[in-house]
Design brief:
Length: 274
């Protein structure tokens, strides 16, 4: 698959048409690589777009209009080939439309566009999903970017997650009480740490010297994951995997979004390296 480069005097980004994944985000002053490069020994993914499913339903089946559809964990977008429809030095637009393969997993026509805009050391990523049907289209949506940890040749143990607002939550073995710093507990991250309705609009992975900051707004869930690996994922979600057995149609699941015919859903997030 073709790769496309965004570049300025501060940073360089490489985007691949397969899954429209960011393969590289480097600081040109330090040569630090911030994106996880993918390694099947830990996780072959890099930063997939989660559509039309986040995680999986409890029975691994999408129940839509009385029929059953099977898609892989996090949906098919992470396995799909996009087409680049625009590109220059500081922006790129990737497009995915339904196909025979996607219709076998999810019975709707859609257009998914991802636009990348590089400004200095900050990458803005914009998403539009259009319902190309004459009926309502239910879907899940989330993001899953993975960042090298460490990024600068230091130690994993020196890094932590910094939020820009104090959060209070209790999730499995992780507790935060009006605090804005999460230590990198390997066991907790392997199970995934999830904050519901976060007050924060930024989350940084840093050792206090170098870091990466993910900016987001209006996402109902924020997750952090690392399977005892040299990376940490910072994941804003509109939807979520089933935490327990859920016996309702796909469109009635908590977090499922529904688009009217020919309507477009829009959202975005950003990645800043420093």
């Amino acid at each position: 698959m073709a790769q496309f480069i965004l570049e300025n005097y501060e940073a360089r980004v490489v985007i691949d048409e397969h899954a429209s994944e960011i393969h590289s985000f480097t600081d040109k002053d330090t040569d630090n690589e911030y994106m996880w490069q993918g390694d099947p020994a830990y996780w072959a993914g890099r930063n997939p777009t989660l559509f039309p499913m986040v995680g999986a339903t409890w029975d691994k089946i999408l129940h839509i209009n009385g029929k059953e559809y099977k898609t892989g964990n996090h949906g098919f977008t992470r396995r799909s080939d996009f087409t680049c429809v625009e590109h220059d030095d500081n922006h790129c637009i990737m497009e995915l439309k339904d196909s025979e393969a996607t219709l076998a997993e999810y019975p709707f026509h859609f257009t998914l566009r991802i636009q990348y805009v590089l400004e200095g050391r900050k990458l803005f990523i914009y998403y539009t999903i259009t319902n190309d049907n004459e009926v309502d289209m239910p879907f899940n949506f989330g993001l899953h970017p993975a960042f090298n940890c460490p990024t600068d040749g230091g130690d994993y143990e020196d890094y932590y997650l910094q939020l820009n607002q104090n959060e209070t939550f209790d999730w499995l073995d992780t507790h935060l009480n009006n605090e804005n710093r999460i230590e990198l507990d390997r066991d907790a991250l392997a199970k995934t740490i999830i904050i519901k309705d976060p007050k924060s609009t930024e989350a940084s992975l840093t050792n206090g010297k170098h870091g990466v900051t993910v900016g987001f707004k209006d996402y109902p869930w924020l997750a952090f994951w690392s399977p005892n690996a040299p990376f940490v994922c910072i994941e804003p979600w509109y939807s979520h995997t089933d935490f327990e057995e859920v016996r309702v149609p796909f469109e009635q699941r908590e977090g499922t979004l529904v688009l009217k015919p020919h309507e477009t859903f829009e959202t975005s997030y950003s990645i800043r390296i420093w």
